[in-house]
Amino acid sequence: MPLYRYKALNTRGEVLEGQMEAAGDGEVVARLQEQGHLPVEAKLASDGGERTSLRSLFKARPFSGERLVQFTQQLATLLGAGQPLDRSLTILLELPEDDKARRTIADVRDAVRGGAPLSAALERQHGTFSRLYVNMVRAGEAGGSMHETLQRLADYLERSAALRGRVINAMIYPAILVVVVGFALLFLMGFVVPQFAQMYESLD
Question: Does domain 66-161 have CATH number 1.20.1250.20?
Fold first, then answer.
């Protein structure tokens, strides 16, 4: 069975790290819960930092796509477990392997510790978090339901990412077809048609 790395909180709020063989990340989560721990992260041990580093070369934002969904879900889980906001952000600070993501979380945590609400701390990150994201967090603060709001936001982001992936996949084949047809036309106009033109000229 594959080996998974995990991070979890025990009943005292301490961060536990370790490895576990399991059929999938769902089994890791279930076994940690059976032990009375709160799972925060579970991923294949073979997922090294090299792939993350390569991705970071092509991403201007420290949070986008899957990483933003994961951050939102983890923050919702920690808040739902009764962890204070600044403590939750401190725990999440240790999870990402990307330095930009760590700096972003550290900036948000420091702003929260300085008395700023989470929505204002996120808004200060120069467009890293969308206006929709910030406004939903602000609504959660006003309604006193931050945990539920973040979970709904994570679900929305996950559905949006899945839809975007399906749209991109659906566009790949037509795009390839257009490119192939374009090259075929260029070949015909640049090579085949001139050959026929020369043949007709020689017949005349």
Answer: no
Q: What is the mean pLDDT of residues 104-128?
A: 92
Residue 128: its H or E element: none
Domain ranges across the chain: 3-49, 66-161
pLDDT in tens, 40-67: 888 888 765 444 433 443 344 557 778 8
Give pTM, 2 decimals.
0.65
Say if residues 69 and 35 touch (Cβ distance below 8 Å).
no
Query: pLDDT at residue 117 above 60?
Result: yes
Cα separation values, 71 from 8, 29, 32, 65, 190, Å: 15, 17, 20, 10, 53
